[in-house]
Amino acid sequence: MAELPKLPKNLDDLSFRDAMAALDDIVALLESNTLELEDSLIAYEQGVGLLRNLRSRLENAQQKVDVLMGELEETESDEVIDSTLQKA
After folding, report:
1. What is the pTM of this model?
2. Residues whose CB falls within 8 Å of the CB of residue 14, separated by 6 or more in sequence, listed in order
3. Which of 1, 44, 83, 88 ranks highest by number of CB atoms within 10 Å?
4. Above 70 in pLDDT, residue 86?
5. Residue pLDDT, tens place only, 35-47
6. Helices 37-72 and 16-31 sit at what angle, rounded to 10 degrees?
7. Across the chain, how many H-helices and E-strands are there?
8. Are 46 and 4 contacting, i.e. CB atoms less than 8 angstroms apart?
9. Residue 33 region, left (φ>0) first, then alpha (ψ -120 to 50), else beta?
10. What is the DSSP string of 4-28?
């Protein structure tokens, strides 16, 4: 009989790669139709928890990238912005 993966209580203790691998294992296990109904429900709950955790990590990473990209963008200098106010 197939075995459910052992996951830590805090999913943040898993690396992103390990969490993805655990999710892949759960999906394969569910697709195999080898689990009893109760175990299928437990596996599904684990999968949903992993998916939420991974999405949250990706959103946080995207926010960090957005902040870093914003810092890299050149802002116009005051001279360029005020050029319309210069006398001809």
Report:
1. 0.73
2. 7, 8, 22
3. 44
4. no
5. 999 999 999 999 9
6. 150
7. 3, 0
8. yes
9. left
10. PPP--SSGGGS-HHHHHHHHHHHHH
